[in-house]
Amino acid sequence: MSLTKRILIAMLAGLVLGIVFNLLLGIESLPAPLRGLIENVLVMGLFDTVGQIFIASLKLLVVPLVFVSLVLGTASLGSNKRMGVMAGKTIALYMVTTCVAISLALIAASIIKPGVGMDLATASNFMGSDAPSLKQVIINMFPTNPVTAMAEGNMLQIIVFSLLMGLALSQISEAGKNAYSMFESMDAVIMRMVLILMNLAPYGIFALLTKLFTTLGYGALADLGKYVFTLALVLVLHLLLVYCGLIKFVCKLNPIKFLSNVRPAMLFAFSTASSSATLPVTLRTAEKRLGVDNSVASFVLPLGATINMDGTAIMQGVATAFIAQAYGIDLTFTDYIMVILTATLASVGTAGVPGVGLIMLSMVLTQVGLPVEGVALIIGVDRLLDMLRTSVNVAGDSMVATLIGKSEGMFDNDIFEETSDTQV
Ligand code: ASP
Q: CB–CB of 230/108 below 8 Å?
């Protein structure tokens, strides 16, 4: 059976079992031993342990993978003048698609009006937290110590360091030959580790989702039905219109094939709610299923997992409009522009880990003078929506990688066309 199928079955099984456990635990008269077995032994014991080990193993690969493959990618591009152009195009595309994403979100939220008539009673106990300033985000990109950057998993700093190292390596051709082949072997080893982990993933995903759906509260889902619907709608629209549109009209590739090829990365993103933890899988998917050259993928994807979060930006757009409507505050045109700008920056500053998008939302709210306590209104359903938006975040990164690869002539059409589901 193909890996994608096994992952899908694991997800479905985890979802069903989680919901069954959740319903069982909701029964007051459930015998104590059975409750103990489900709650302590299975969910918080076995499943939580397996799930956490799975996430840890994914994260384990991120830093070495990004470092090795980015050094290698930059070095093999050599003193290619296209590097600067490629970087410029990548960042521009990331920013533009994010702006489009928030605009779509704001338009949909002002038509559907999910926040009108909300009960504000729950909104008083959220304490806003500090989001970093733009200046700080920029300064923080530059490492003072590569080891610290790697120890802390600071992706932007690792990217800067690896780019420099790769560039230097490309300039000392003969003397750097040994170092280059060492990076090449390391890359093969780490890619193999990713493959081993991907083959074990169905178990990890099953455990993660069972635990999550057992502990999730579903009450909020019905109350916030309109918010959830608007957000999910915009996420799907963005995926189908913007991503598939660019793939079809700019890359001249089949969008259905693109979605099918990118599926493993999206499923991992959904299960982990973390673009950063999904990165090893995104990289592998881009190279082995989408046909993007390593030198492009290894630059575009780690950067994307850190600064490009269209799904998160969509959530922030819908949530801002929702909170404004709930509080009966009218947003002006200038406010809308402000939301687009700050949410774009917020998505740059958002780390690719679960739930951070919600913290950054307080920065957007403050910017347009909305009450930060409004975040409490949507916190109950955020975990579930985080999974959806992270899938879109990762699909966006993969789309840009494909587009850049294609436009720079570093793309293998045969891999893209011939990918079958057994190939990961
Ligand atoms: N979980 C998201 C990601 O990793 C970030 C967020 O929106 O909270 O891409």
A: yes
